[in-house]
Structure formats: C-alpha cells, structure tokens
C-alpha cells in the first residue's frame, strides 16, 4: 500500500472539509492563550506588585511598582487553584466578593529555587495574622525585610537589632522617629518638602508639636540623611531619637507586642531575646514559653493544643517538647516606628513566602503633577 499517497490524499480531504475559524473564535483563542500564559508567568516566574503603605520607606516608597521573583526561593504551587484570573482574593471592582473557591485545597509544596531566604532580603509574603480566615495563598500580600531566619536568636536593644549576638546593619534608607527641639520658630513647609518629606510625612500624625510653646516637634519618619540636614536648620537646637526604654509601654497594636505577654516587658525598641523556630529542631515546652510558640503549633502546623493546669497536651497526648515542621522568619519594615510587622504579629511561616523583591520598574508620586509624578531616578533600581 502506498502510505505516502494515502496520507497526502486524506490531508487534502481534511483541508477541503475544515472550516476556517471566525474572527471571534480567533480572538477568543488568543485571549485564552494570553490568560493561561500570563497566569503561568505570575505563578511560577515573576509578578508585579505596588507599595501602598510607608512601612518600608525610604527603601521603598508609596507608589513604587516592583517585580517580585518567584524563582529565587522556589515557586509555590497554588494551594487554592480554583480562582478568577489576575484577582487575588476579591473580584475586580468589588469589596467582598470572593475571587476563589475552596472546593479544592492542595497541600503546601514549593518547587526548588536558586537560593534560601537570607537576612536583609526584601520579601513578599502572605499576611500570617489574616483576620478573614482566608486560605494561605489568598491572604493579603505584605512586603518587609527579613531580619532573622529560622534558628536565629533575635534581640532588639534600644532600636538596634542583634542576631545571635551580632549587631545587624541598618537599612541605608531606613526611617525612624525623632524628637526635634527648636528655638520656637516654625518650620518652613517647603524647606521640609525639599528634604524629601512627603505630604503624608508632614501630616498631623507624623509631624506635630508636642509642647504648647511650639519648641518641640515629633517627626515620625526621618532617614539619617534627613536628620543631618535638619541639624543645619537655623531654628533647630537639638535632635534625639524617640526610643522607648526597656519596659516602657508600647503605644501601637493595642499596647502589646508579640507574643502578647506583658510580663516580658517588651516593646518596639527593646524586644527579645526571641528564638525563631526551625524545621526539625525540638524545643522544650513550658507554660512560660508556650505563648511564643502556641500559634505556630496550633494554627500554622495544625496541632490540637490544650493546657490543663501546668500540663501541655498536643493532639491529646501530654507534651513537654515539640519538633517544628516548617521554617519561620522574622520580618520588619525599614520605617521602624511606622510598621506593623513581626514585632506585633509574630513569625512568618515558610508556606506564606511569595517571593523576593528584585527591582522597581515604575515609581509614581501622588503629591506631584504631570511629568513630575514619575520619580525618574527610581526606575529600574535594584532593591537591596
């Protein structure tokens, strides 16, 4: 049999009987392909994010648009696969309509990556204290700097971070709050704007007089460079950091930092020492250290935890120790006194990690107009 002849003949017949695609069908096919391709890229390779709050200033500014790599730490396989394309947890143009279905929930799995999370990395993750009870991969996206990794012991002393007893470098453009004393003369608003302070920085909650005679001001967010520039102002007589002393009550997050144990006398500037849970490591459990690890054990790792008197029970059995099943991280904002971070809600589990922030592709200043709205010098800057 002449197979070659038979194939050609049938191909010709197929060509004669096949109907050409309509323009509508061609557009539909192109849209479906684009959605699938974009979803794969966003899920496994790279995704765009924007900075909505000042918690990372001035390393990252409100209005920065950045690319986040899923490859560096390894792409996380979606745990909630039934979801509307390009929507996170709510449908576009709605406030509370869910964009996903929990009919199928997959266990946590991460593909191999190029590197592990390191201290000082700027990381995007799902908010671990999500009040809505959403699935892990549908919780709000946060971006912070990783200051301590699994197995580290972290301590904050007078606002300086120590990990395993070693002082850590401060973010180059990080911010903190300061008390500025003057000779009674008011500040020139435009002069402060030229220092790089935004209108939000100079709002009533971030920049205010704290004495009746207007000679002491509170600046919530200043970089080291801005502090030095302020020292040269003719009306400034002194500047000192607004640091809470050890045991001084906290005034953010309901007045209590994580783990919510007032007997520890921790606050934002004097905190710890705190050991960060590490996969495979066993810790001795007592009623004294249980508040630090109970959320890890019961919520993130799904164990049934009970305390009866001085006895601790895990999954119904008495327990005086626990072996962790995941790695955890401690995240903080570079704007140290204007950031709700791990100091207030605790550890970030590895299954909440989304990716590593790489570079800024656009930066938009809402306080400016026309072409000045674009912060041209920030475009394509790497994130460190």
Salient structural properties:
384 residues, alpha+beta, Umud Fragment, subunit A, Alpha-Beta Plaits, 7-stranded antiparallel beta sheet, 4-stranded antiparallel beta sheet, 6 helices, 25% strand
Your description of this structure?
The protein has helices spanning 3-17, 23-44, 189-194, 224-231, 290-300, 342-345, and strands spanning 46-50, 64-69, 122-126, 141-148, 153-157, 160-163, 166-167, 176-182, 207-209, 216-222, 236-241, 271-275, 282-284, 305-308, 311-314, 317-318, 321-323, 328-332, 348-349, 353-363. The chain has 384 residues and is α+β, with helices and mostly antiparallel strands. It starts with a helix and ends in a 21-residue tail after the last strand. The protein has six helices and 20 strands. Among the domains are: 42-152 and 276-281 and 324-378, Umud Fragment, subunit A (Ribbon); 176-241, Alpha-Beta Plaits (2-Layer Sandwich).
H/E element sequence: HHEEEEEEEEHEEHEEEHEEEEEHEE
- Return the CATH class of one domain: Mainly Beta
Uncertain segments are: none
For the largest sheet, list the strands in their spatial order.
1-2-20-3-4-18-19
* CATH superfamily grouping of one domain: Umud Fragment, subunit A
Proportion in helices: 10-25%
Oligomer: single chain
The whole-number mean of residue pLDDT values reads 90
- Beta strand count: 20
Mind telling me the C-alpha Rg? 26 Å
Looking at the overall shape, the CATH architecture of one domain is Ribbon
Strand content: 25-35%
Q: What is the CATH topology classification name of one domain?
A: Umud Fragment, subunit A
What kind of sheet is the major sheet?
7 strands, antiparallel
User: What does the overall shape look like?
Assistant: flat
Judged by helices, strands and strand pairing, the structural class is alpha+beta
């Amino acid at each position: 049999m002449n197979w070659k002849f038979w194939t050609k003949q049938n191909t010709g017949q197929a060509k004669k009987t096949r109907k050409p695609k309509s323009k509508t069908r061609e557009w539909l096919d192109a849209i479906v392909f684009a959605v699938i391709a974009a979803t794969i890229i966003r899920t496994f390779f790279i995704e765009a994010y924007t900075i909505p709050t000042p918690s990372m200033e001035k390393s990252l500014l409100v209005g920065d648009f950045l690319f986040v790599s899923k490859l560096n730490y390894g792409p996380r396989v979606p745990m909630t696969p039934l979801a509307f394309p390009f929507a996170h947890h709510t449908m576009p143009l709605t406030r509370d309509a869910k964009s996903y279905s929990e009919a199928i929930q997959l266990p946590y799995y991460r593909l191999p990556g190029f590197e592990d999370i390191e201290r000082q990395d700027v990381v995007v993750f799902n908010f671990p204290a999500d009040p809505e009870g959403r699935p892990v991969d549908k919780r709000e996206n946060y971006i912070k700097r990783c200051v301590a990794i699994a197995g580290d012991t972290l301590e904050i002393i007078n606002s300086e971070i120590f990990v395993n007893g070693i002082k850590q470098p401060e973010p180059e453009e990080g911010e903190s709050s300061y008390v500025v004393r003057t000779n009674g003369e008011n500040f020139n608003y435009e002069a402060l704007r030229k220092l790089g302070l935004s209108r939000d920085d100079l709002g009533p909650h971030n920049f205010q007089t704290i004495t009746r005679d207007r000679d002491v001001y509170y600046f919530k967010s200043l970089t080291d460079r801005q502090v030095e520039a302020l020292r040269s102002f003719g009306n400034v007589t002194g500047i000192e950091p607004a640091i809470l002393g050890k045991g001084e009550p906290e005034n953010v997050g309901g007045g209590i930092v994580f783990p919510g144990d007032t007997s520890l006398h921790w606050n934002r500037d004097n905190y710890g020492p705190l050991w960060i849970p590490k996969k495979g490591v066993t810790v001795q459990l007592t009623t004294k250290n249980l508040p630090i690890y109970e959320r890890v054990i019961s919520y993130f790792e799904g164990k049934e935890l009970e305390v009866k008197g001085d006895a601790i029970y895990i999954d119904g059995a008495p327990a005086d120790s626990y072996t962790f099943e995941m790695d955890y991280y401690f995240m903080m904002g570079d704007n140290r006194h204007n950031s709700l971070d791990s100091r207030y809600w605790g550890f970030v589990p590895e299954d909440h990690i989304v990716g590593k922030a790489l570079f800024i592709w656009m930066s938009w200043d809402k306080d400016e107009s026309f072409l000045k709205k674009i912060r041209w010098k920030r475009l394509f800057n790497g994130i460190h």
